[in-house]
Design goal:
The protein has about 350 residues and is α/β, with parallel strands linked by helices. Helix content is about 30%, strand content about 20%. The chain folds into two domains: about 260 residues, TIM Barrel (Alpha-Beta Barrel), CATH 3.20.20; about 80 residues, Immunoglobulins (Immunoglobulin-like, Sandwich).
Length: about 350
């Protein structure tokens, strides 16, 4: 990182866009030989008596999920536990799950925290610091966050103001954008550390939007683990800078929850687009699944869903994206393995017009 800081701004951006970020996960991939443990990470938002959004949960519905986890032998661990256990996978429980709650809503203290204590669970709360105040009826306070942390909860960063991190304002220079982005990432970490008197190592991207520029600056801000909203379960060998999380929706049934928890991970070789890449035209999607018995999958990009087939060369190729608007696009691949068990895999790219 010292070398990155020493180069001039123009060369820094060139290197960011031209080079992938390499992590220790890539080196561990071939060394981990035991049957891997699947690690789902779930994202909840507000927990309120009367829901008004797809992402709101009632306390009763959240407790139903907790009961399901308890009945089926799942062990909730924190996001920080996950990062540390990825170094020593043998420390993972047999059926781990990471519960995360985003944005710092008051209900995380009044509803979620008591439920977690009731079930003996731990969870991670990703908060953006502009939302934390001294007194509030709708948002968490610093005293409440400190109590939750002292009660065994994990408090981590969700930036300062919860912006779309890849979005450059109108008439904003590249230099000004990078400075603003750096402050969003760095200052939120320092503010949390100052108020909670604890080290903050993790970041969750607001809305899940990221690209290589954002990722490199997050590493420069000294985050050791970064959480996306890309779908799928995680492996102990997961890239710690691109941990997958699934946003929970209140229309999901317990059967849907079960599928999220057990969904396998196919061995996919992503050809194009590379995860976190930036494009100025709609890319053709190309990937390969090493299991030769899988010849059909479903691809989903935002509202576009289509079934695609493997070609004679063993590749899946899809060019169904048209008329894109600027933003982050998650590519979701779904299918079934030879035992008819579901699998999910996803990655994403940023499009700028």
């Amino acid at each position: 990182m010292k070398q990155v800081r020493s180069i001039i701004l123009g060369m820094f951006i060139f290197l960011i866009l031209a080079s992938p970020v390499f992590t220790k996960a890539e080196n561990r991939e071939t060394n981990f030989t035991a049957e891997p443990t699947l690690i789902p990470v779930l994202i909840y938002h507000r927990v309120i008596p009367k829901t008004s959004s797809l992402y709101d949960y009632t306390p009763e519905l959240l407790e139903e999920h907790f009961r399901y986890l308890k009945k089926n032998g799942y062990t909730p661990i924190t996001a920080l536990d996950l990062l540390e256990m990825m170094e020593q996978p043998e420390q993972l429980p047999s059926k781990p799950v990471v519960l995360t709650f985003d944005d710092g809503h008051k209900s995380h203290y009044t509803e979620v925290f008591p439920l977690l204590k009731k079930y003996g669970y731990q969870a991670t709360f990703f908060v953006y610091t502009n939302a934390i105040v001294e007194k509030s009826e709708k948002l968490l306070t610093w005293d409440e966050l400190r109590e939750m942390w002292q009660g065994g909860m994990d408090i981590e960063s969700h930036t300062k103001s919860h912006p779309y991190l890849t979005q450059i304002f109108k008439d904003e220079s590249q230099e000004a954008y990078l400075k603003r982005l750096t402050l969003e990432l760095r200052d939120s970490k320092h503010i949390l550390e100052e108020h909670l008197q604890q080290k903050v190592d993790l970041l969750a991207y607001p809305f899940g939007w990221y690209n290589k520029t954002v990722e490199v600056l997050a590493v420069q801000a000294e985050y050791r683990g970064i959480f996306t909203v890309n779908w799928g379960t995680n492996l102990p060998t997961e890239d710690p800078l691109r941990i997958k999380r699934r946003v929970m929706e209140n229309t999901m049934s317990l059967e849907d929850l079960k599928t999220l928890l057990v969904a396998g991970r196919p061995s996919i070789q992503v050809i194009y687009p590379e995860d976190g890449a930036t494009f100025y035209g709609a890319p053709e999607i190309k990937f390969k699944i090493t299991d030769s018995r899988i010849d059909t999958v479903e691809i989903k990009v935002r509202s576009v869903i289509e079934k695609i087939f493997k070609n004679k060369d063993g590749f899946f190729i899809w060019a169904g994206l048209k008329d894109l608007n600027s933003g982050y696009y998650m590519i979701v691949i779904k299918g079934f393995d030879k035992e008819n068990q579901p699998f999910t895999y996803s990655w994403g790219f940023e499009y700028q017009n």
